[in-house]
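[step 3/7] inverse_fold.run input=structure_tokens len=289
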């Protein structure tokens, strides 16, 4: 609250502000201008309670997703899911979105699956090909069908394992940790069994295909206030947002999540959750080329 006031916050509208779905369609009202560089390709309203904390870190109390300092946070994340779609995750809450139009294709809340008892540990990374998404939580891995979000495999994260680097069928290849750095292990997602370990990097290429992960989308401050924006080029920013998180790049668009600058609730603290209420959270895409 104090940071917003000190930064001279004013509730000004930006291109991500409309409450309805803002689609860039070939025959739509916004065509063809919506295809220009730096313009919003689509803006999708998000349901639920979102808040801005600290120095405009976005926080979703229901999912526990928090964008904050590097020592204590659970990330918002997104990945190119193939077939012209993007998978957006807030810990265990998943949304599949058409990357061209912003149409919401499906949602899936992994917390509804009682067998996944490690979701509270927090999402570490997303990985995808055209048919599946693999989510690596601190204490386990989940594979979901890209067509509908149904769970197709899961397993606890083995001890002394780290990043997911490749996958072959139900076999996922993970980095070893600690004193075994530079070696790899294989885990069967259908059974949770460790199939082999302590192989060096030479075996990694034989184990399967690397899946897509997020591509960095750079965020910069907007001059003259607390708003931030995704960079479409080093000299050009997209529309202003509050607490903007650059999620990923897909083709000629950058995907981000933010609070619309005119979408804050009263600038006062509330006892049930930290920060200021964001009443207009948005997932959106900006043209980069």
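[step 3/7] decode complete -> sequence:
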């Amino acid at each position: 609250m104090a940071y917003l006031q000190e930064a001279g916050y004013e509730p000004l509208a930006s291109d991500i502000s409309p409450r309805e779905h803002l689609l860039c369609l070939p025959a739509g009202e916004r065509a063809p201008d919506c295809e220009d560089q730096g313009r919003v390709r689509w803006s999708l309203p998000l349901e639920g309670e979102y808040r801005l904390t600290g120095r405009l870190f976005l926080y979703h109390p229901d999912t526990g997703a928090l964008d904050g300092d590097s020592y204590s946070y659970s990330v918002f994340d997104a990945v190119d899911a193939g077939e012209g779609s993007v998978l957006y995750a807030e810990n265990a809450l998943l949304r599949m979105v058409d990357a061209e139009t912003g149409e919401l294709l499906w949602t899936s809340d992994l917390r509804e699956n009682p067998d996944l008892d490690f979701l509270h540990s927090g999402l570490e990374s997303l990985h995808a090909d055209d048919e599946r998404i693999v989510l690596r939580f601190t204490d386990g891995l989940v594979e979901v069908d890209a067509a509908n979000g149904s769970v197709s495999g899961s397993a606890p994260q083995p001890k002394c394992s780290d990043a997911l680097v490749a996958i072959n069928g139900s076999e996922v290849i993970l980095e070893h940790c600690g004193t075994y750095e530079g070696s790899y292990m294989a885990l069967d997602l259908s059974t949770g069994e460790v199939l082999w370990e302590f192989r060096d990097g030479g075996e990694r290429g034989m184990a399967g295909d690397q899946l897509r992960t997020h591509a960095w989308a750079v965020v910069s401050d907007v001059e003259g206030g607390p708003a931030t924006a995704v960079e479409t080029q080093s000299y050009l920013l997209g529309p202003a947002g509050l607490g903007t998180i650059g999620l990923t790049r897909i083709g000629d668009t950058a995907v981000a999540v933010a609070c619309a600058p005119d979408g804050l609730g009263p600038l006062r603290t509330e006892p049930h959750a930290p920060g200021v209420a964001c009443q207009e959270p948005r997932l959106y895409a900006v043209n980069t080329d």
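[step 4/7] annotate
DSSP finds one helix and 24 strands in the chain.
The mean pLDDT is 88.
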